[in-house]
Amino acid sequence: MFIHDISIVYYVLIGILGLIVGVFVDWLNLRLPEYKKIFSKEFFTLYLRNFKPKYILMLVTAAIYVALLYFIGWQDSIIYKIDLIKYIILTPMILSALIIDYKLQIIPNRLNLSIFEIGLIFAFVQGILSIHVGIDMLLGSCAGAGIFLVITLIGGAIAGKEAMGFGDVKLMGALGLFFGWKNMIIISLIAFLLAAIISVTLILTKKKKTDEYIPFGPFIVIATFIVMLVPFDILLFILLKIFTLGMYKESEMIVWIVN
Length: 259
Description:
mainly alpha; two-stranded antiparallel sheet; globular
């Protein structure tokens, strides 16, 4: 049986891989906030010995892996294969960033640095295959970090307090090495849109106060997964429709993408 010309066996295998990686994500969530080593014998002697499965986390990770295989596929083009591999590697790290930031309002520097280091490797590999793609990834890092750094500095100056954590700035800079500058703009727009909708909802339902801090990392991660799974032109069209109140025409979008 095949789905999208891919044997169902591969979906089962990547789903199982996702379940295993979900366990590793839970381990990351325990170790990173305490600045402890990830690759340690304590994983076997302490964690696995007292292992309590986080079924939701494991199933979410497995579902993301299956979705990546379905939407990206395993095509003949080496570019698509690299995209699938790098997203599989990136997924547990940004899932950990989402959970840690949601619970503790921090994104550990070690985690951001790991994402950046791995992103550099993939940007180098893709740069060998196509110099234009490599340059795009480097520009993506500058765009991601630059957008959020400006917002952080201006927001802090206006509000008189930290408007956004520097962990978010570092995360966006690291992610730029995976996605390129155009996708980083899309990720930024989706993240701010989600943050606005959810924040207003929480305030109106009185679950959060107007002066209460809401971590932004989870919105970045959710936006990143959306960009992984949905084609760029579809996301661009939807966002332009939203931000222009439906007045943007598809023909104008085609010209923008081409340029």
